[in-house]
Amino acid sequence: MSSRTRVRWTYAFLDRPAERFERACAFWTAVTGTVPSEPRGDEGEFVTLLPEGADACVKAQAVGDGAGGAHLDLCVEDVEAFVAVALEAGARTVAAHEGWAVLRSPAGQLFCAVPWHGESVRPPVVAGSRPDQVSIDIPPSAYDAEVAFWSGLLPDWTSRPGSLPEFHVVAPPPGLPVRILLQLLGEERPVSAHLDLACGQDIETVRARHERLGARFVAGHPHWTVLRDPAGGVYCLTGRDAETGGLPRG
């Protein structure tokens, strides 16, 4: 992979139903300590969550169909060359725009290749948490191919088994703000993705704050908690360290 096709920055993109998009933006800007950019796109469907004194790494999109979810934007110097690499690795083109492209992984997960605009300063931890991971939930029939795809597409990232047998981590080089978690589902259903926030030992404190802002509890696990935001989108609070992304000790 040449330097011009290396991923220079990563964005987690929150996809939320258009009729609940304002609620989603109000919630997520409060959670992340950011302000929304001016809407852009043909229908004002895109918003960037702007932190103070750092570069953004979360965006939001109003979608007309379905319940939404999440996807990745991968920022590169040469979008056309990166798309060629992705197609060779097994991706499919969904839409080619001027200067950027929408792609689909072998399992069907959407992601975008977009220009890098020099982003380099990671947003800080806010109120005990930091958005830092997009979890892709993959049916058993597609899991091995999906692990191979993301590992091959991002050769300068670290691809390794996760803390549980159903997890595989694809972690970026230091400085990039969003990593990828590949999660093996226990049943055959369409691939989906959601955002994870690292909270360290403060999951319950962060959960309480999010619920005050309008989130609803879905499920609790030993090292992560599942919540639903006011727009209906599922996301997780994890026990990984918010500064380092490392697992809790013990």
Give the helix/strand class.
alpha+beta
* Strand percent estimate: 35-45%
Q: Globular, elongated, flat, extended or rod-shaped: what is the shape? A: globular
Uncertain segments = none
Question: Ends: how far apart?
Answer: 38 Å
Helix content: 10-25%
Q: State the strand order across the main sheet.
A: 2-3-4-1-5-8-7-6
- Major β-sheet profile: 8 strands, mixed
Number of helices: 4
Averaged pLDDT:
95
Structure description:
The mean pLDDT is 95. The strands form 2 sheets. The chain has an 8-stranded mixed beta sheet, covered by helices on one side. A hairpin with a 5-residue loop joins β7 and β8. It is built from 4 helices and 16 strands. It has 250 residues and is an alpha+beta fold.
Which features would summarize this protein structure in a list?
alpha+beta, 19% helix, 8-stranded mixed sheet, 250 residues, single chain
Question: Quick summary of this structure?
Answer:
This protein has 250 residues and is of the alpha+beta class. The protein has four helices and 16 strands. An eight-stranded mixed beta sheet has the order 2-3-4-1-5-8-7-6, covered by helices on one side.
How are the elements arranged and paired?
Layout (H helix, E strand, L loop, with lengths): L8 E9 L3 H12 L2 E2 L9 E5 L7 E6 L5 E8 L2 H11 L2 E6 L2 E5 L5 E6 L14 E9 L1 H14 L4 E4 L5 E5 L7 E6 L7 E7 L4 H10 L3 E5 L3 E5 L5 E5 L12
Parallel strand pairs: 1-4, 5-8, 9-12, 13-16
Antiparallel strand pairs: 1-5, 2-3, 3-4, 6-7, 7-8, 9-13, 10-11, 11-12, 14-15, 15-16
